[in-house]
């Protein structure tokens, strides 16, 4: 494949003259890109051939696509840069860009590169280093995992080799077999793992020349709901000096060292089991969610997050060296909430979202639910209503807001759904229903349905009366 035209590749803005350049491979999401540009760098967005291009409103210096050979790709990237521009770093904005970013970094003479280790190798390497690891098997066909599924104790976990978003807890052989076949229709391979019992934690870290800085620790809030065994309700930040971190932080550092992680961000999941910490998986990428967690981390740490540390690692190593090895005592209280739906339907209004913004601890919300959206019962991240970041200087205020938010979920208070047409037995009302059970019959769209919010929340007073599909008497 021939390189793209020089004119297209070398297009620059006058404001970019003389600036340093970061080549960002697959810059999915805008938080990382925006911080790079805020620091005065310009970005050449390099997309792998298979990547889904970012649709965020980010104006890159230039956008190019991977070519048929590495040499052609390097030539194309070089055509984007003219004097006095200087490329100072090349790294991946998403995990699927790590391999290309490493090749381009080496081709451009840049020393930093990220480490990509598949899940099976991770467990084998950690086990060889004398640390607790998961019993597992990986395969690209059902036959390669069949024996494991017949001998491993149930329940067990079946998930894609490259993701955890379609992981499933399978309770018998038939269930596991069905899910393996389903995943292999979309993924190159699957991983089948023992089910770890305990509490799951996540660690955001950044490495530079083999030096690891932990930027945040999280405890996952997972609960059974809507028939699903483990549904994400959110992430709770954990203080680095808390008792549970005493064994977990050394274990994390052992994992990073055994896997020879040298540069870049990592998001590591560790289960604290009855016999100690055990690696679930390590992803060579930023914490997900396009950085919605960033303002929470900055509020807790006093000004930095994994995003700032990542950019420092690749563009300002001396600044990276100044970061603490682990977060200092938190300067506020906060939490990431994942909104759970206990109902389904076609959305005709979202009054509850407006209500959330009035909470004293509200910081930011991210949701794809709008008028016309189809909402289903939440059974995984894909079916959640969205994410909310809450932060406050007062712990009691934060907890009160969390309780209120969870109450809104239970009463289906975030969304109003389109009413269903019912075939009534007596549509003309010639035989009106009688009896105490029908005393409060009502229309789903009737004006008599008004929710009176508790007066102990004065900050919510502007929305004290609102239309709803909930019978006020209940």
Write the layout of secondary structure elements.
Elements: H1 6-9, E1 20-25, H2 31-38, E2 42-47, E3 62-65, H3 70-80, E4 86-92, H4 98-107, H5 119-128, E5 136-139, H6 142-151, E6 156-160, E7 168-170, H7 173-184, E8 190-194, E9 198-208, E10 211-225, E11 228-237, H8 245-258, E12 264-273, E13 276-283, H9 294-301, H10 306-315, H11 317-321, E14 333-339, E15 345-349, H12 351-356, E16 362-366, E17 374-375, E18 386-392, H13 395-410, E19 416-417, E20 450-452, E21 465-467
Parallel strand pairs: 1-2, 1-4, 2-3
Antiparallel strand pairs: 5-8, 6-7, 6-8, 9-10, 9-12, 10-11, 11-14, 12-13, 14-18, 15-17, 15-19, 16-18, 20-21
Strand order in the sheet with the most strands: 13-12-9-10-11-14-18-16
Number of individual domains = 4
CATH architecture call of the largest domain: 2-Layer Sandwich
Q: What's the alpha carbon Rg, rounded to whole Å?
A: 26 Å
What overall geometry do the principal axes of the alpha carbons give?
globular
């Amino acid at each position: 494949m021939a390189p793209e035209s020089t004119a297209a590749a070398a297009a620059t803005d006058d404001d970019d003259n003389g600036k340093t350049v970061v080549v960002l491979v697959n810059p999915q999401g805008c938080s990382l890109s925006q911080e790079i540009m805020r620091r005065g760098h310009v970005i050449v967005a390099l997309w792998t051939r298979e990547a889904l291009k970012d649709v965020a409103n980010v104006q890159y210096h230039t956008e190019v696509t991977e070519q048929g050979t590495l040499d052609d790709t390097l030539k194309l990237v070089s055509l984007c840069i003219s004097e006095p521009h200087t490329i100072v770093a090349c790294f991946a904005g998403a995990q699927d860009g790590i391999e290309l970013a490493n090749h381009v970094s080496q081709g451009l003479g840049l020393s930093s590169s990220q480490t990509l280790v598949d899940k099976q190798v991770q467990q084998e390497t950690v086990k060889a280093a004398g640390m607790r690891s998961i019993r597992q098997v990986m395969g690209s066909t059902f036959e390669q995992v069949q024996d494991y599924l017949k001998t491993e104790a149930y329940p067990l976990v079946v998930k894609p080799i490259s993701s955890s978003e379609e992981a499933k807890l399978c309770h018998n052989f038939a269930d596991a077999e069905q899910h393996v076949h389903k995943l292999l229709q979309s993924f190159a391979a699957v991983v089948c793992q023992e089910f770890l019992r305990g509490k799951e934690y996540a660690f955001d870290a950044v490495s530079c020349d083999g030096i690891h800085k932990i930027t945040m620790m999280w405890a996952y809030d997972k609960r059974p709901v809507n028939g699903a065994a483990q549904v994400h309700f959110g992430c709770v930040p954990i203080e680095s000096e808390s008792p549970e971190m005493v064994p977990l932080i050394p274990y994390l550092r052992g994992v990073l060292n055994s896997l020879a992680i040298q540069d870049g961000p990592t998001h590591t999941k560790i289960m604290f089991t009855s016999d100690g910490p055990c690696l679930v998986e390590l992803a060579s990428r930023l914490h997900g969610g396009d950085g919605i967690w960033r303002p929470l981390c900055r509020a807790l740490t006093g000004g930095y997050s994994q995003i700032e540390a990542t950019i420092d690692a690749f563009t300002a190593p001396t600044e990276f060296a100044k970061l603490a090895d682990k977060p200092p005592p938190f300067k506020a209280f906060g939490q990431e909430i994942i909104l759970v739906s206990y109902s389904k339907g076609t959305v005709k209004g979202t009054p509850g979202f407006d209500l959330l913004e009035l909470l004293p601890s509200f910081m930011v919300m991210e949701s794809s639910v709008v008028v016309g959206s189809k909402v289903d019962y939440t059974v995984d991240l894909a079916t959640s209503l969205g994410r909310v970041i809450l932060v406050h200087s007062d712990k009691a205020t934060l907890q009160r807001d969390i309780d209120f938010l969870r109450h809104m979920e239970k009463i289906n208070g975030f969304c109003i759904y389109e009413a269903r047409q019912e075939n009534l037995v007596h549509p003309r009302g010639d035989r009106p229903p009688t009896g105490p059970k029908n005393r409060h019959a009502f229309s789903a769209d009737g004006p008599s349905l008004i929710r009176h919010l508790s007066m102990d929340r004065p900050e919510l007073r502007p929305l004290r009366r609102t239309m709803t599909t909930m019978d006020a008497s209940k």
